[in-house]
Amino acid sequence: MTLDASSATPAPVSPVAPRPQSRQQVPAPVAPAPAPAGTGGPVPSGRPGRWLAIAFAVAWVLCPAVEPLPAGDLAYPAWQAVIDLSALGTIVLAVTLLWRSSRHAPVAGIAAGVLMAVETITCPWAGHTPVGWWTWVQAGLSLAVLLTAAALVSRWPRMTAPGR
């Protein structure tokens, strides 16, 4: 309140009119753009890569499972250990990349299939076991991994495209 000079009584103060509020349009939240096909972005459902990852892992486990144990006490050659560990590393890599739907999964799968086939050849070559039905089962599993991964090279970007 302010004092008026002509009277000793205070003069009423006019209330301050509220400012008209401007209505601001708040933009709607924008969802992040999906990753382009084949860039390693996640698959919304994850199913194609995960089913193949499981199939590749099962194929690798079945290869040594069907082979009989060596008949005698044979030394394990160091050169074969290099091949076996390389095959193990590539199949673990391929399974992981397939599970995560990485764009590098087909190449890792091809490497795993090749090394699985090399392992199949080296066992009879090293003298562990003779060639038998298990050798053909192992060859079939190795080729299944190899050919599936080779087929993925052109199809993988479409399989892992967002919205699939």
Topology:
Layout: E1 2-3, E2 10-11, H1 47-66, H2 78-99, H3 105-126, H4 133-159
Antiparallel strand pairs: 1-2
Strand order, main sheet: write it out: 1-2
Query: In whole angstroms, how far apart are the ends?
Result: 70 Å
Radius of gyration: 34 Å
Overall, the morphology is rod-shaped
Mean model confidence by pLDDT = 80
| pLDDT < 50 stretches | 38-45
Total helices: the number is: 4
Q: What is the succession of H and E elements?
A: EEHHHH
Write structural notes for this entry:
The radius of gyration is 34 Å and the shape is rod-shaped. Strand 1 and strand 2 form a beta hairpin. The protein has a domain of 94 residues. The chain has a two-stranded antiparallel ribbon. The N and C termini lie far apart (70 Å). Helix 1 runs antiparallel to helix 2 and helix 1 packs antiparallel against helix 4. It is an all-alpha fold.
